[in-house]
């Protein structure tokens, strides 16, 4: 099978013939109206493009990828804007402050956490005050203020270890989900391949049944001619006629098997058209010599369940470190620096903002739950989950060795079986040929020839079935190694 490059997220340009009338894209030859010839490569391409399970698997990966941005959102820049207007005409114990005060606030600010766990803030506040107090020096007064702030976590989540860890954990989970999605895609393609070979086998069986029918017709004609000449008895013609009826029935069943195989293949490639599919490939021995050691190396490198297990160990190890840090107390350093300006006019108040007049402060905040049971339990859970993940990794390693050994043996055994059954078919053909010579010389009867015809047709069909099993084993071998997608150029989403 030639290698073809396929993009999972970019639609393949392989138009379906029934929809667009471009049969030549898929087929070299169309032998009957409403029929199309597809190669195995064509079927794989259609399965990747159209199979519903493949589409579902893509969305599974896309859904998982959204968790990464969700965890990254902690580093988003936050814009805040607020405005307040208040009128104070409450009774006062002193007339110095006046009887009415109007205050208008309109403020804006930006806050952002950076990967070091530092939260930076920039606030621009504006206060307009107006009072009827005779003692107000500036009335109205404008006070714009610019304030810079910094909050640094020093113990729990020190330098952003937990926040960054959450993002990394989401990325690892997405990697695991991608492996799972690729596994589903590969299974769907493997299923499409098997359904294609089923159609090839059904087509071969029909051809063999047609040959058997032709042989039965020839035998019937011979016996009819001999009966007319009085050379044989009626029983010979009856036997050959019964044989002819059986061959016709076998051919009808063979055609039904083709129809079922076509429907199964259409389901695998999600084709709802009325086109009749004809296979372009042949069943044959094509795997070559397969080495257990090489197959095992390939599987260890490519097996997605093994990569998922290794990814899970990395994720659990990361969470142990995060949960360990989460047991620490919360210690935050808070620093601020602000400058302002005041004037009766807003523009003048802005011009008066100067670093000569400033305000700054530094503080620390400490908090710690004395029992700290939640953090301790989360840490213990993370430790247990890591231990479990290590066991899952060991289990995956052992499973790979066993499955590769089984897969290699199946390919070899079915290869031997296919080769031997092909030899048996040849011997049965020789046997029938010799018996026909005897029959032509009048030294045999119809019953023996019919039995030998049965032996030959069954041997030929069994040889084809053995080849089908062999091709199944090759597909299963690639699925066991997780190399089927790699041959198509699809190794990641």
Describe the fold and architecture.
The chain has helices at 17-20, 40-50, 52-72, 161-228, 234-269, 292-302, 304-325, 346-351, 373-440, 446-481, 484-487, and strands spanning 35-38, 78-88, 101-113, 118-131, 141-153, 276-279, 330-340, 358-367. By secondary structure, it is α+β, with helices and mostly antiparallel strands. The protein has 2 domains: 17-68 and 166-313 and 393-487, Outer membrane efflux proteins (OEP) (Up-down Bundle); 77-114 and 118-156 and 330-367, no CATH class. The strands form 2 sheets. The protein has a 6-stranded antiparallel beta sheet. A hairpin with a 4-residue loop joins strand 3 and strand 4 (118-131). Helix 4 packs antiparallel against helix 5. The longest helix is centred in the middle third of the chain and has 68 residues, at 161-228. It is elongated. The relative contact order is 0.13. Residues 1-33 have low confidence and may be disordered.
The helical percent reads 55-70%
Question: How many DSSP E strands?
Answer: 8
Strand fraction: 15-25%
Overall SS class = alpha+beta
Tell me which CATH architecture of the largest domain applies here.
Up-down Bundle
Q: Strand sequence of the main sheet, in spatial order?
A: 2-3-4-5-7-8
| Termini Cα gap | 22 Å
CATH superfamily of the largest domain: Outer membrane efflux proteins (OEP)
SS field, number of helical segments: 11
Mean pLDDT: 86
Question: How is the biggest beta sheet arranged?
Answer: 6 strands, antiparallel
